[in-house]
Predict the 3D structure of the following.
Amino acid sequence: MDILKQMQSTIYELINGTNVMSILAIVFSVGIAIWVYNRGRQVLTYQNLIALSWDKDYLEARKVFIKIRDNDKEELIELAKSIQSSEDMTAVRSILNWYEIVAQGIESKILDEKMVKDYYKTTLITDYKKMMPFIEETRRLYANDSFYIKFQALAKKWNNNKTP
């Protein structure tokens, strides 16, 4: 019973007079902190998307990736099986690794999912679907189902139209 009286007393004190302004100041401060955090995440996402659109190495890798991505399933499986490093393999892994990093950034709330989704949704889902034979073969060869797992989860989420 003492705890209940103490809680009632504390609530009364918070509501009564001088503490109301303190509570409002705290609530306002928390609201501002949340807004600043979200805005900072959006700025970081925007800066990364813009920088990437001008990055020559990324653009070159993307061109090679698209040519390979559009091959048939058997050719993608054979590429996954090839043990030699090549420009093609480097481009494919670079783009898939980039998707994995983006998915990790979104999952960790470092990148703004809505902004990335608005910019990349169709491309990401298309790349995922077309590269699945390569991804599955890579997982099989290395006996590691975690390769590109975050990329896969993000593509499936967006493909199912789950909004951020």
User: Anything to note?
Assistant: The chain has a mean pLDDT of 86. DSSP finds seven helices and no strands in the chain.
